[in-house]
Amino acid sequence: MTLAVSRALLSMASRSLGSDRRTWAMAMEAEFEAAVEDRRPFLFALGCLFAAWREIGKHSEGRLILANYALALGLLIPMAVLQFQQAIGFLSSAGGRPFGIPSAADGPNLYLIWSQNSTIPILVITWLLLGIAHLCLAWMLVEGDWSRIAKCGMLIGAAMITLSLFMGVLMLDLSSLRAQVAELAIEFVAVLSISRWHIRVLAGASRNLLAR
Amino acid sequence: MGRNRRPSKQMLLLLEALSAHTQQWRHGYELMKETGLLSGTLYPLLIRMTDQGLVEAEWREPEHPGRPARHAYR
Description:
The complex is a heterodimer.
Chain A: H1 2-17, H2 22-37, H3 41-56, H4 60-92, H5 110-143, H6 146-171, H7 175-211
Helix pairs in contact in A: 1-2, 1-3, 2-3, 4-5, 4-7, 5-6, 6-7
Chain B: H1 9-20, E1 26-27, H2 28-35, H3 39-51, E2 57-60, E3 70-73
Antiparallel strand pairs in B: 1-3, 2-3
């Protein structure tokens, strides 16, 4: 168990070092065997992880990795939580007064209540899908899988359009979407900026490799 | 522009260990045992010192067949 955890820590350290410091990552991996023989793999691997994190901010690839984690943890995951909360909010308000309708003098419109309540499952599923898509986006961003990031982004866009249509036409209430749309716009700009930074870092790394 | 700062206690320990046998190649784990430095301290020092040209580093064939090559320093 300790050995497995130690190997996982060392693997994280190797990935954190990036392509610039690939030699040092391999050096640590080679010395890990000596640490295993000395029965101190965990301490060695933990130290290597700290060493890797100390190096991470010193090179462009490391700064990009940090930015990816900051975006994933600081924006995408909170967005996912917000969307799950919206889904739960819809569930708990099912069967109540119609949304977006000011108090009618003649009492509640039963047809309207019925039609709006019948859309709640679709809205709940769409909000949940949005939340899951954001979690997937955060994971893919950290992994650097840009083709899947693009697909995930399209799914999020499609889900938002669906939500806007349903909520605008049936619920007559877009208030909960306004903040989401603004946040999505910020998210889009952030992910686009990071993708351009990624391209610049890759181009720089390729130039360095060719120069060697 | 790099900062000029005095070498740390840990760097002096490492320099002392390396300068005791200047022509001898030493592996990272051996240096750890000799200096008492942990890997989290040793490797940043080795990286910095290698970048600055204070330490040479190269891959050495393993002592036992079937093991990976190890990085050595002097």
